[in-house]
Amino acid sequence: MKLKRTDWPRLQSLMLIAPFLLAMAVIFVMDTITDYAIAAAVFYTTVILVATRLLSARAVVVLACSCVLLTLVSFAFTRSGVYEVGLVNTAISIVAIGVTTYLALRLVAAEATAYETRERLLRIARVTSLGELTASIAHEINQPLTAIVTSAGACTRWLAQQPPSLDNARRAIDRIVQEANRSSEVIARIRGFTSGKEPQRSAFDLNDAIGEIVSLARSQIDHHEIALTLDLQPSLPEVLADKVQIEQVVGNLLLNAIEAMTTSTNKVRQLRIVSSTTDNGAVRCSIADSGVGFHQGEVDHLFDAFWTTKADGIGLGLTISRSIIEANGGRIWAEANQPSGAVLLFELPSVKRDTE
Ligand SMILES: Nc1ncnc2c1ncn2[C@@H]1O[C@H](COP(=O)(O)OP(=O)(O)OP(=O)(O)O)[C@@H](O)[C@H]1O
Ligand SMILES: [Mg+2]
């Protein structure tokens, strides 16, 4: 069992790299058997361009070095043509391989940075709105509280008088009740604000929403060498929900899954997103990872506000996700993944079920 688990990623990387090795072998043969004048070696740049989309930066550099080496070997073994022409073509091919590798890797790195910046911005936006919310609570609640304290002080003084001034004391108590009611209204207003606006429901294909978020996260998934499996049920019934909000949920769950895998010691990084219909006609999405998973008792707290195990986490991603899914008439929950990791699942009502 142990052997299998450690061998699997190696086998996967081999399967991924095999087509590149085959293409390089074909180019090598072409470059060797053809005339010096035919610079077949420039086709190595195509191999490198495709490799930067599928392999890690280190693997691309190793491939590029191998391409340069093969170009030199081809040059040494080519027998026909003008030697000087071969020399120039070999030099051009090597420069082309080098420049292509450098530019392609720079492009991938820039894409990854752009994604990370966007993610950081999202976090900052969340922290900022949290900061604003805290400031507004402090401001709005502070006023009635000050008034309550002042009125309570006045009330004590009216009662301490000889004889006690009961009318004035009653008026002070009325003011305390009024201010306390005002505080409750402020809290009710703030709760309305945090629960967000009413969802703008429309019918849409959940597979499209998943696809859009996955393509946004693609560079991060590749950057962390995560093997992604998309198992999306074809012709899924449309769901009736707020697409932007649901995309926010998928984004939160994807981000958590990526974070759980990058902090895990488990070298196998597998992310599996499945969409399906349930027996009762709802549409289900599950996001399963091979990350750190949950410790005992953690599952009960995942959706609690400000509950986090991350040094830089806020602990609101899942809280917000749950309030969104429930506001859209669905449910969300978590389970342990097998053999390791976590699965987060949510269900939404489908248009089909709603119209039945
Ligand atoms: N896929 C997962 N695998 C393991 N633990 C998870 C996973 N998703 C969430 N958790 C746990 O649930 C906690 C709460 O997640 P949540 O998304 O609400 O907050 P966070 O990720 O810590 O911070 P943020 O508010 O920035 O998203 C996480 O800190 C983590 O411990
Ligand atoms: Mg989170």
Describe the 3D structure.
With 356 residues, this protein is of the alpha+beta class. The chain is 63% helix and 11% strand. It folds into 3 domains: 2-113, no CATH class; 128-194, Helix Hairpins (Orthogonal Bundle), CATH 1.10.287; 202-355, Heat Shock Protein 90, CATH 3.30.565.10. The chain is built from 9 helices and 7 strands, in the order H-H-H-H-H-E-H-E-E-H-E-E-H-E-E-H. Helix 1 (2-33) runs antiparallel to helix 2 (44-54) and helix 4 (83-160) packs antiparallel against helix 5. The longest helix is centred in the middle third of the chain and has 78 residues, at 83-160. The mean pLDDT is 86. Bound molecules: adenosine-5'-triphosphate and magnesium ion. Adenosine-5'-triphosphate (ATP) binds next to helix 7, helix 8 and strand 7.
Protein topology:
Blueprint (H helix, E strand, L loop, with lengths): L1 H32 L10 H11 L2 H21 L5 H78 L5 H29 L7 E3 L1 H18 L3 E6 L6 E3 L1 H20 L7 E8 L5 E7 L27 H11 L3 E6 L5 E7 L2 H5 L1
Helix pairs in contact: 1-2, 1-3, 2-3, 2-4, 3-4, 4-5, 4-6, 6-7, 7-8
Number of strands: 7
* Main sheet record: 5 strands, mixed
Oligomer: single chain
Q: Percent range for helical residues?
A: 55-70%
Mean pLDDT: 86
| Global shape | elongated
The fourth-level CATH homologous superfamily of the largest domain is: Histidine kinase-like ATPase, C-terminal domain
* SSE order: HHHHHEHEEHEEHEEH
CATH class descriptor name of the largest domain: Alpha Beta
Bound molecules: adenosine-5'-triphosphate, magnesium ion
Helix tally equals 9
Unreliable segments of 5+ consecutive residues: none
The third-level CATH topology of the largest domain is Heat Shock Protein 90
Q: Label the structural class.
A: alpha+beta
Taking the alpha carbons of the first and last residues, their distance comes to 48 Å
Radius of gyration: 31 Å
Domains (count): 3
Enumerate the strands of the largest sheet in spatial order, edge to edge or round the barrel.
2-4-5-7-6
CATH architecture of the largest domain: 2-Layer Sandwich
